[in-house]
Amino acid sequence: MDQNEFDQLHASCVSAFKSYVTEADITAVLLANCTAEPLPLADRLKILIQESTENSAHTLYLGAKRLLHEAARLGYAFTR
Fold first, then answer.
1. How far apart, in whole angstroms, are the C-alpha atoms of residue 9 and residue 50?
2. In the chain, what are the domain boundaries?
3. pLDDT, tens digit (0-9, with 9 covering 90-100), for 36-74
């Protein structure tokens, strides 16, 4: 990996993090609509789908961060 590839990896990690934060914020907004009574089925389904989307974004971020940690540990010249 050269400097350009490392810079691209770092940028993709930052982008993945921002996507994750965006999805987590959407989930938080949906959960803020909870009431003392059960939500309608359609609203519960929206939350379920959004949580899945958030989890996927989190997984992508963790993968990119893991690669950056490897580059920090080994030096990016030695990272595959």
1. 26
2. 3-78
3. 999 999 999 999 999 999 999 999 999 999 999 998 888
